[in-house]
Amino acid sequence: MTNRRTFLKAGVLGALVLAAGGAVYRKVQGPPALAPYRLDGGARTVLTAIVPAILGPMLPAGGADRAAAIARTVDGVQGAVATLPLVTQKEIQDLFGLLSLAPARRLLAGVPAWEEASADQVSAFLQGWRTHRLGLLRGAYAALHDLVLGAWYAQPDAWAAIGYPGPIKELS
Question: What PROSITE patterns would the database entry show (predicted)?
Fold first, then answer.
């Protein structure tokens, strides 16, 4: 008959064996190779919810034009991410992975599901990260903000709103 003490000892011993095995595996395999990151479905869903919260009234009012502008901006974020160093792409992949994972999304963003999140919920999440006491979350907000705005203002359609005439003809 197994008593509680024996059971706990076996559990601790099993955990130590698993941890040692994991350490040996990591030592033998080495760090994973870095690869270019392409936005997956989860990242695109997150961005589709975040883009309207960041761009707000800069987006068309509604309908197909609004959806097309959001989709172009998400594609623009993909283009911007592709130009970043692989280490930075990995960090962005980790960020979108966390925001896509249901428990982490609920804990970090307070959003039930990105598809169901209201603009107010997403704005509250972004504002919370913008002013958070942890620099890591402030940095994550800055990355999301800069990627979305960079992708938006890289589109010639957005230039008129800020009075930018476009690149000098002689340089293009």
Answer: TAT
Three-state secondary structure readout of the chain: CCCHHHHHHHHHHHHHHHHHHHHHHHHHHCCCCCCCCCCCHHHHHHHHHHHHHHHHHHCCCCHHHHHHHHHHHHHHHHHHHHCCCHHHHHHHHHHHHHHHCHHHHHHHHCCCCCCCCCHHHHHHHHHHHHCCCCHHHHHHHHHHHHHHHHHHHCCHHHHHHHCCCCCCHHHC
Per-residue pLDDT at 136: 93
Report the pLDDT value the prediction gives residue 77, as an integer from 0 to 100.
97
Helix axes 119-130, 135-153, angle to 10 degrees: 120
Single-letter amino acid, residue 139: G
Whether the CB-CB separation of 50 and 126 falls below 8 Å is answered with: yes
* Predicted pLDDT at 134: 94
- Judge contact between 129 and 137, C-beta under 8 A: yes
- Could you state, in chain order, the average pLDDT of each consecutive group of 10 residues for the chain (172 residues)? 79 80 71 84 95 93 90 96 94 94 91 91 95 95 96 91 85 66
Distance (Å, rounded) from C-alpha 48 to C-alpha 111?
A: 14
115 is written with which tokens?
């598809």
